[in-house]
Amino acid sequence: MSFVNPQFFWALIVPFVIFAFLISTNKERLARIFDEKVLKRLSATDESMPMVVRNILMLLALFLMIVAMARPVIEKGDRIVEVQGLTLLTALDISGSMRSTDIYPNRLTFAKKKMSVLFDAMPSDEIGVVAFAYSPFVLAPFSSDKETLKMMVEGVDDSYINMGSTDFSALGELASNLLEKKRPKILVLFTDGGDEEAITGFAEILKENRIDLYVVLVGTEKGAPVIDENGKPFTLEDGTIAITQRNDSLGELAKENDGAYVVASTGKEDITQLVSVIKGKYKNQQQGEVTVKERVEYFYYPLGLGLLLLLISLSSMPRRREV
C-alpha cells in the first residue's frame, strides 16, 4: 500500500501528535495555547462517557481523517491506453489582404469564426494553431482544450496583420517540424489563397514531408481593396487602388494531393463538410498511446471509520443544562 498525497500525512501528523500529547498530559500547557472557550469545547467532562475514552475516540477519528487525506491506494501497475482521435495543425492567414471587407466584417474575423466552428466540430481531437504571413509562428501548441484554443485565436486582431508578402515555404517548414512525429500529418489552412508562383515551394515541402493539405478559403472572386493599418485603401505606384481577390490555387493544390478545400460561407455547413471528409479519410486513426497507473483507492475506509468515531464521541458530549 502507498499514499497518493503522503505530504498531507507528514504535514498534519506532527501537529496532531503534539496536540494529542498536550491533551493527554498537561492541561496547563494546553491552557497556554488555546483560549479558555476553545479549551472547554475540546475538553469533555461528561458523566455518560469517561473523558479519557472520549478523548481517545476523538483523537483516533482525527488520525483516521489524516490518513484519508493522504489517499491510501494499492498500485495495480501500469496500463497502456490507446487514444482515439486525430492530431491536426491549423494555420491562420494574417497577411495584409485579410483586412479586406468583401465578407463581413473582414476576412480575418471571418476566418477566426470558421476556426472556432472547426474546433467545435472536432471536440476530442488534438489541434495546434499557427499564424502565418511573411514569418509564421506558433499561436497555440497542440491541445484538446478547445476553449483555450478559441481564446488564443480570438486574441489575433488587426495589429497582427503583416503587409509583407506571404512566405508559404516558411509555413511549410514550420508545419513539417511541428508535425514531424504526428501520424497522419494534417494541415488545415484558413486563408484567402496564394498564387501558383508563391505556393510552388510550399507544394514540394508538403509532398516531401507527406503532409496532407486541407484549405478553408475566405474572400470573394470579385475581391475588394487592400486596406492599410489606417483603414484606407492601399494604392499602387501608378496610383490605382490595389484589389485582392480570393485565389483558389491552394484549394486545387489540396485536391491534387488527396486533400480537400471549401469556400467559407455563412453557416456551419462548409466546415461540417470539411470535417466529415477528414474524419472519413482517417477513420479510426489513433493519436497514440498513453501509460496510465491503475490503482485502487482505500481512502473511504479510514474516512468512514473516522466520521463514525467522531459522531460517537460528539454524541456523548454533555447536554446543556437549564439554568
User: Which structural category fits the helices and strands?
Assistant: alpha/beta
Identify the overall geometry. elongated
Number of helices: 11
Cα-based radius of gyration, to the nearest Å: 33 Å
**CA-CA gap between termini:** 53 Å
Output the keywords.
3-stranded antiparallel beta sheet, 323 residues, alpha/beta, 11 strands, single chain, 11 helices
Topology at a glance:
Layout lengths: L1 E2 L2 H20 L1 H7 L2 H7 L8 H19 L2 E13 L2 E7 L13 H15 L4 E7 L4 E7 L2 H9 L13 H11 L6 E7 L4 H13 L2 E7 L6 E2 L17 E2 L4 H8 L3 E4 L5 H13 L4 E12 L2 H16 L8
Parallel strand pairs: 3-4, 3-6, 6-7, 7-10
Antiparallel strand pairs: 1-2, 2-11, 4-5, 8-9
What does this protein structure show overall?
- Helix content is 43%, strand content 22%.
- It has 323 residues and is of the alpha/beta class.
- Strands 5-4-3-6-7-10 form a 6-stranded mixed sheet, with helices on both faces.
- Strand 3, helix 5 and strand 4 (126-132) form a beta-alpha-beta unit.
- Helix 1 packs antiparallel against helix 4 (51-69) and helix 7 runs parallel beside helix 8 (196-208).
- The radius of gyration is 33 Å and the shape is elongated.
- The mean pLDDT is 85.
